[in-house]
Amino acid sequence: MLTPAFRRLWAAGAVSTIGDAMNGTTVVLWLYSQSTAPAPWLSALVLAGFLPRVLVVPLYGRLADRFGPRGLMIGADLLCAVLALLLAGALVLGSPVLAVLCVAALAAGATLAEPAQRALTPATVGPEQLTRANSLLTLTTQLGFTLGPAAAAIATSWLGPVPAILFDAATFLTSALVLAGLRLIRPAEAEAEEPVHGTIRSGLAAIRGSRVLLVATAAALALSLSAGVNNTIMVVFLDRDLGGSPADIAWLSGVNGIAQIVAGGVVVALAARLPVARGLAVSMAVMAAASVLMVSATDVPTAIGAVLVTSLANAPFSIAYTTLCQTAVPERLVGRVFAITGGIGSLLFMLGSLAGGALADSAAREAILLSASALVLAAVLAAPLWRVRQVSRTG
Fold first, then answer.
1. Which CATH code fits 200-387?
2. What is the pLDDT of residues 116-127, one digit of tens each?
3. Which residue from 51, 18, 45 is spatially nearest to 29, judged by alpha carbons?
4. Which of 69, 140, 143, 364 lies at a 20 to 30 A Cα distance from 168?
């Protein structure tokens, strides 16, 4: 049985995730309705969602030092509530520029809250419950981002975009209120006092200090690059190279979301039996095998099957990597590790998306090969982790 402290942390995250998922889809639908040429604005929206995740990483350490992970999460929620209200105002004014700026600021707030949540999780459960707790958080996030866009489409069609954004603001306020009553099962270890640039330096040092974490991080970053390539190339690959249709794209998206939910549920049920390092190695090997299947696909069903296998392995990998970061480095540095790896991962995702976009018109299958190569490299890096039975904390 998970603790009341974790259930409160989980509830706060679940509420804000639903709002975040509705927010993105609502703004996309609004941009389509407001502009005769929405493509540039949609590109700006994608950039606004990812670039702040890279730029605000150095701020995490200083803010965590001052407010602690819990205080940082509450502050980020309150800030995001205000920003969501400003976003609603931008929609009322019909200003795409202001809307994109608000989305960028919201992404920055989320970037500060996510590593704080992961740093706080070990203080809400016992060590034997950590994998299960991470599984529930990952599963809830996936559920939110699978169901949230559909809820946003329904809310926007019935009520309009502004009420949907106001609901997002309400979710941030609710999350802050829930977190205000959080009582940890033990005090969270204080973050180390450092200058602003110290977040990057100390985070990288913590990763280098654990050989297991260093290998796993390299695999995770290769996975981010691969995901970025697939993000822009998959539609072209299915449509032009495999003769697919728009309905196949919908199937692809649905299969991806459902598979990750199912896989996350399995990890929740079997968490106590899954060695973290071995889970990383197996998940990465499965994703690499699926990427090879994707490269060799000659029809849409085979490609969708490859996506299904990849998605089934992705959730266990994410859960195992999160647990590894929480157990392999000193607790005071956990948030910094997540901040730096999240920032680098977002940068690689953007670079992969740009590479995929550049190759889309002339070499879609070659871009899929690039993605598969990144996954195979990650699998090779992660393979030695199969021999690791238990991860010890460094420092």
1. 1.20.1250.20
2. 899 899 989 888
3. 45
4. 69
